[in-house]
Write a structure and sequence with these properties.
This protein is of the alpha/beta class. The protein is 37% helix and 20% strand. The chain starts with 12 loop residues before the first strand and ends with a helix.
């Protein structure tokens, strides 16, 4: 199908709660439309999970009603990480999974995303088929065919045991002092249990969700609190999750932030040493050049996908590689999981620490990062700043200064629309901080003016 997406973005349907399409009537229609399409694929059972946003209750009820009208049974997990829903969809033999979450966004945003029976993001053609159904009037199935709903009482426990099973049995986290920031999100009752049950001394922050404090000055998108706590507690490292626990960022013992690119390097290098690296590593257009250079020195292939974990997974499947991710913290270990999973990724890093006897500080020191400046410019839907001649000229100036396209580039430029927010993302990378800042701001000023 070649239709243009109307509702689905790079990570499901997202927006501000109460504004179309994140409204109860649209969620009802979306549940019905999805049920109609999925039922043609044989689906009669769908798992619904959510994060800790207060709007999750409203959207969950509306989706449940729509699915029921289409004759689909709903299994409700309550607050649960996105990767947990993907895992349970596959192991529970459900034909699809739905997550109600806006991931790293503030509480007043929310979203709805789908997983296939394999625990992977829905293929584009299925999402487009759902969009086509949304243009039709709801037709309720006969009463005796209506879907039912029930709670999965042990969902968290099932996922905790799965996560622990991804950590090598010959190692233990005993003796490690960790700080975990749960972002007041979906993993608040899971991540601390996984790590403490494996033997770690765990200090937990961001584990008091109240419906409106998800990602608020905490978690993977706001690292200051974790950095401060790690230093104060004299911990070995810190682990930050985002609201739905599909992103991870880390902090070393000195409070320095460790991003997804550095995590990918740690995992790829150790997998190469152990002889179990399959193929290479998939990054994105946002991945730091330092990762590409460091992997190249090890002889590890590296390719860039479009921004978005669904596109990283697409490349992993095409190449049949196992490791990929984004600098923002989506890390996919495809030999273990079917989507970005913060807890599983953390455990793989911790296994490298256990195996090598090195600190996280030592492991990341082996990959020099290239200075990178990212400027986000908000725009309204009626403007098209990327089509401005002034913006295109600014990009040309920057690329010439950074020798982009030559045999010896000293940086690169990336300009793109966000797939989840009304933002233009301007990124400049260079061999020194001053150059990166100069050209990122130069282009961002042109975008603002446009």
């Amino acid at each position: 199908m070649t239709m243009t997406r109307k509702y689905f973005g790079t990570d499901g349907v997202r927006g501000k709660v109460g504004e179309y399409p994140i409204t109860p009537d649209f969620a009802l229609k979306l549940g019905w439309a999805a049920g109609r399409v999925l039922s043609r694929l044989g689906t009669k059972k769908v798992i619904i999970g959510k994060d800790t946003r207060i709007s999750g209750y409203m959207l969950e009820s509306a989706l449940e009603a729509g699915l029921s009208a289409a004759g689909i049974n709903a299994i409700l997990t309550g607050p649960l990480p996105t990767p947990a829903v993907a895992y349970l969809t596959k192991t529970f033999r459900a034909e699809a999974g739905i997550v109600i979450s806006a991931s790293h966004n503030p509480f007043y945003d929310n979203g709805i995303k789908f997983f296939s029976a394999d625990g992977e993001k829905l293929p584009d053609d299925v999402e487009l088929a759902i969009e086509a159904e949304l243009d039709k009037d709801i037709e309720c199935v006969d009463s005796h065919l209506l879907g039912k709903a029930k709670r999965m009482e042990d969902a968290a426990g099932r996922y905790i045991e799965f996560c622990k099973g991804t950590f090598p049995s010959q190692y233990s986290l005993a003796g490690l002092k960790l700080v975990v920031d749960c972002a007041n999100g979906a993993a608040y009752h899971i991540a601390p249990n996984v790590l403490s049950e494996l033997g770690a001394d765990v200090t937990v922050i961001g584990n008091q969700p109240n419906g409106v404090n998800i990602n608020e000055n905490c978690g993977a998108t706001s690292m200051a609190l974790l950095q401060k706590t790690v230093v104060e507690c004299q911990a070995d490292m810190g682990i930050a999750l985002d609201g739905d626990s599909d992103r991870i960022m880390m902090v070393d013992s000195k409070g320095n932030v460790i991003d997804g690119d550095q995590i990918l390097f740690i995992l790829a290098k150790q997998a190469l040493i152990n002889g179990n690296l399959k193929g290479g590593v998939v990054g994105t257009l946002m991945s730091n050049m330092g990762l590409e250079v460091a992997l190249g020195k090890l002889g590890i292939p590296f390719v860039r996908a479009k921004v978005g974990d669904r596109y990283v997974m697409e490349q992993l499947l095409v190449k049949d590689w196992w490791l990929g991710g984004e600098n923002s913290g989506h890390v996919i270990c495809r030999n273990l999981v079917t989507t970005g999973d913060a807890i599983v990724a953390a455990l793989q890093v911790l296994s490298v620490v256990s195996e090598t006897g090195k600190t996280i500080d030592e492991l990341v020191s082996e990959m020099p990062m290239m200075p990178q400046t990212l400027v986000n410019v908000r725009f309204n839907s009626e403007s098209a700043p990327l089509e401005s001649q002034a913006v295109m000229d600014a990009v040309k100036d920057a690329e010439a200064a950074l020798k982009v396209g030559t045999d010896n580039p000293v940086g690169r430029i990336l300009l793109r629309k966000s797939g989840t927010e009304p933002l233009i993302r301007v990124m400049a990378e260079a061999n020194c901080v001053e150059l990166a800042e100069q050209w990122a701001n130069h282009i961002a000023d042109a975008v603002k003016a446009a």
